[in-house]
Amino acid sequence: MHIVVCLKQVPDSAQIRVHPVTNTIMRQGVPTIINPYDLFALEEALRLRDTYGGEVTVLTMGPPMAEDALRKALGYGADRAVLLTDRYFAGSDTLATSFALSQAIAKVGQTFGTPDIVFTGKQTIDGDTAQVGPGIAKRLDLMQLTYVAKIPSVDLSAREIKVERRCEGGMQMLKSRLPCLVTMLEGTNEIRRGSLQDALYAARSQVLKWSAADAGIDDLTRCGLRGSPTVVKRVFAPAARAEKAALIDVPEMNLRDLADELIAAILMRQPALEQELAFNGGE
Amino acid sequence: MSTANREAPRPASGRAGTKKELPDHFKDYRHVWVFIELERGQVHPVSFELLGEGRKLADKLGVELAGIVLGPPGETNQSAIAEAFAYGADLVYNVEAPLLADYRNEPFTKAMTDLVNSHKPEILLLGATTLGRDLAGSVATTLRTGLTADCTELDVDADGSLAATRPTFGGSLLCTIYTLNYRPQMATVRPRVMPMPQRADRPVGRVIRHQLSIAEDDIVTKVLGFLPDNQSAKANLAYADVVVAGGLGLGGAENLQLVKDLARAIGAEHGCSRPLVQKGWLSADRQIGQTGKTIRPKLYIAAGISGAIQHRVGVEGADLIVAINTDPNAPIFDFAHLGIVTDAVRFLPALTEAFTRRLSPHSRDKLAS
């Protein structure tokens, strides 16, 4: 079984700072990580490979430094890594990204065997769109299985897969066909600690670096800025409310008085709450 | 946020310089559409919230607002159509077919793309639910148009194009996104981000019906079963009237108990900011913010939460926001109404105790009556 996992290298969002004067992102020195949601996809792929045999190829599109994310993935136990990197991809929105990735996946298929499953995370933590997975599925005509919590079985000879899919208000049990695209729900597994062997393998391995041409992309008008229907016109910091919070800040006040003061202030602003809280609380 | 958005768009930083113009074949795309999402016989409330937004956009553009109902034959379908009119739709496009009873990507994508190709809307809005995101992604790719996810504000520019604002860079800034040379302009909005509009009993108006051009045999994915969530265990954060949440300022997972104690004392739901879910202190269904739940309670108490935009957009709809934080410069004090500059870990027990003291006589009265 051949599985392709799409990863993204993202800035560690907990450490992004906005410049207080210029309102621009201060990228310098912000550490990068594998998008945390993608690790659930990677672990599920590794688990399936361990169960059914085969190979896991990890793929990312990004600047040359995204190689680090792929090396980490090799260290977790992936078998092969492909970095799709080219200046033509700069400025891609989700449509252009899913175009480039789907072309690269097709090329991976021609070179190393057609994938049975393509995995992505549920979404990324920097873009939060959840659109690239469905975009890849549609372009490669893969069955689209999003928000998957569990994969109870894969039948390689019958080309069948069963999944439990999170939907509003419950879980859907679905039966579908291989090849398919699965976006994996968070919290459904825990990424393994790579073995020493995997670490050595990661250190020795070459990450394949593919340009647009290497990935077989002829139509550059569908890549990057030119291939992106959406245009970001403005980036801005949100305006502060006209008045800042009224601070109840009396250092010498004891906590009990401070608490009473706060409750009085809450009820002064929202008198109806007294009734509400009385009904709900004090069980 | 809204004041910032009303400024004239600043020209040409980065992508705006690409000069994208709407090709002629898109110029007859008119009207605003809202996808009416059905979940087990009920319309998802986000669809009504979107009809409220869609109404504003349609009025600004001087066009019609249509609800898109894709449902199984019978009562469910009929009541969804009636509700779309009650919440402001001028007309409804309806595809009625037995195999639309359970959501699956293939028939819904087919139904939606066929409708778009026949009737050519300029704007298409969907709820950013698991269903809406699954559908929007594949519809946009099929139509090769732009899709802006999880918008927090929608507006129409002077030239009639949709200005979709959403948080970016992990929720530290906002950006306004346009789809300049493709139609329809697609956007998703999370539940509870937009206010619920007034419902008014109105007669069912124009309903334009379409056939579904895909049969069960053509659909690969089959539904084997459905397992409903355990209702008692399910957090009802999004619709709670009072919410208490904790952030990294709590210092350790064990101090979440202080948040839960306060919530319990005042009959509130409890939640947390994103880093706590990433640390595994609470499950993802308790996360409040852009990538978690959006809440609109009457009272929101944030304890030890700094207030990144990612969190802010999820709580701005609250009537009263109370922030407890040791850092007087924390961004949360920019949008909270009331603030206490103190350590939440020390203050929360005192607050719980004070609420209990104040509220218990009422509860006793209520029990006695």
TrEMBL record, chain A:
PROSITE patterns: ETF_BETA. Residues 22-219 form the Electron transfer flavoprotein alpha/beta-subunit N-terminal domain. Pfam families: ETF. GO terms for molecular function: electron transfer activity. Keywords: Electron transport, Transport. InterPro entries: ET-Flavoprotein_bsu_CS, ETF_a/b_N, ETF_b, ETF_beta_N, Rossmann-like_a/b/a_fold. It comes from the Bacteria. PANTHER family: ELECTRON TRANSFER FLAVOPROTEIN BETA-SUBUNIT, PROTEIN FIXA. May play a role in a redox process involved in nitrogen fixation. FixA and FixB form a heterodimer. Belongs to the ETF beta-subunit/FixA family. This is Protein FixA. It comes from Mesorhizobium atlanticum.
From TrEMBL, chain B:
SUPFAM superfamilies: Adenine nucleotide alpha hydrolases-like (SSF52402), DHS-like NAD/FAD-binding domain (SSF52467). Binds 1 FAD per dimer. The keyword Flavoprotein applies. SMART domains: ETF. Keywords: Electron transport, FAD, Flavoprotein, Transport. One of its GO terms (molecular function) is flavin adenine dinucleotide binding. Its cofactor is FAD. Residues 1-21 are annotated as: Disordered. FAD binds at residues 273-274, 287-291, 304-311, 325. It holds the Pfam family ETF. The keyword Transport applies. It comes from the Bacteria. Belongs to the ETF alpha-subunit/FixB family. This is Electron transfer flavoprotein subunit alpha. It comes from Mesorhizobium atlanticum.
